[in-house]
Write a structure and sequence with these properties.
Helix 1 links the parallel strand 1 and strand 2. The strands form five sheets. Strands 2-1-10-11 form a four-stranded parallel β-sheet, with helices on one face. Strands 3-6-9 form a three-stranded antiparallel β-sheet. The chain has a two-stranded antiparallel ribbon with strand order 4-5. The longest helix has 16 residues. The relative contact order is 0.15. It has two domains: about 160 residues, HUPs (Rossmann fold, 3-Layer(aba) Sandwich), CATH 3.40.50.620; about 120 residues, 3-Layer(aba) Sandwich (Rossmann fold). With about 325 residues, the chain is an alpha/beta fold. About 35% of the residues lie in helices and about 15% in strands. The protein is elongated and about 70 Å long. The protein binds glutamic acid (GLU) and zinc ion.
Length: about 325
């Protein structure tokens, strides 16, 4: 079994990151598998090396250890996406060879105009630039993004928490971007290449990515990889229903540590809030490993209000 935690170093890690890191760690450690830490820094503008450094320190402080990744090495490296561009390039060439790749010259304004709001910030693309004659492409005076053309098929998978899905690709993702007009590789491409080439067998991550799963499975199959099994976990939200990550300045792991909160107290409080344990108390790492039960985990979003936070800080 090979699981992974794949954070983006775009800020200090907050409770939302701890929640998914903890569960990925738990799933792998309970089954005596190998945990991979992969740094997803393909968004070059938003990622910063100091955040990578900080997240390594914060995970170590939490006691969430990994077997392969930064500081550990391993046979599937490099474990930092900015060092894996040649793999993404090769994948694009394979898509090109299969006639699945095409340039899209649409402006942001056009994309917004056609975009039916769709689960989060996704916009379904209408295939406008698909099949554009070479001659017309040559006349375009903007740099294109690159899209893959998805077939009219459904992808079926069974999520470890949310059960069976059969997602019809033209409806869940449409032709999606794999390389942006600014040259950066898209998350959907990088994650499929990385989970595939790193031999990942189990992905555990936030429910916000459940709707990307079908396209990632499809892409992995096209590229000749065996897709992993997926378990999505509920999101942490605040009392007004916002993602905790939006308030991350307030609830970073660093700020909790600076206020004297113990690592195990954070994990214990999250395990209780998520329904993995039933008794309200401090659990040590070994107890969490032994007692946390994925079968009883809640599947709806988990509200962590101010009272919850006060209790954690003042316990
Ligand atoms: N890098 C993504 C994030 O920080 C996670 C991607 C994944 O787990 O597939 O949200
Ligand atoms: Zn287009």
């Amino acid at each position: 079994m090979r699981g992974r935690f794949a954070p983006s170093p775009t800020g200090y890690i907050h409770l939302g990151n701890v929640w998914t890191a903890f569960l990925a760690w738990l799933q792998v450690r309970q089954q005596k598998g190998t945990l991979i830490l992969r740094i997803e820094d393909i968004d070059e503008q938003r990622s910063k090396p100091e955040y990578t450094q900080a997240l390594l320190e914060d995970l170590a402080w939490l006691g969430l250890d990994w077997d392969e990744g930064p500081g550990k090495g391993g046979p599937y490296g490099p474990y930092i996406q900015q060092e894996r561009y040649s793999l993404y390039e090769k994948a694009l060439q394979e898509l090109q060879a299969k006639h699945l790749l095409y340039p899209c010259y649409c402006s942001r304004a056009r994309l917004q105009a056609i975009g039916a709001p769709h689960e989060g910030e996704h916009h379904l693309y209408d295939g406008h630039c698909y099949g554009m004659p070479e001659e017309q492409r040559r006349q375009m005076d903007r740099k294109p993004s690159w899209r893959v053309h998805v077939p009219h098929v459904s992808v079926s998978f069974t999520d470890g928490s949310y059960g069976p899905f059969s997602d019809y690709l033209p409806r869940v993702c449409g032709d999606f971007v794999v390389r942006r007009a600014d040259g950066l590789y898209a998350y959907q491409l990088a994650v499929a290449v990385d989970d595939g080439s790193m031999g990942i067998t189990h992905v555990l991550r936030g429910r916000d990515l459940l709707s990307s799963t079908a396209q990632q499975i499809w892409l992995m199959e096209v590229l000749g990889y065996t897709p992993p099994s997926y378990t999505h976990v509920p999101m942490l939200i605040d009392a007004s229903g916002n993602r905790l990550s939006k308030r991350q300045q307030g609830i970073t792991v660093r700020s909790l540590r600076d206020r004297g909160v113990q690592a195990d107290a954070i994990l214990s409080a999250l395990a209780l809030a998520g329904g993995l344990v039933s008794e309200r108390r401090l659990y040590h790492k070994g107890e969490l490993l032994r007692l946390c039960n994925f079968q009883t985990m809640t599947t709806h979003d988990i509200v962590l209000g101010d009272t919850w936070l006060d209790e954690l800080i003042h316990a």
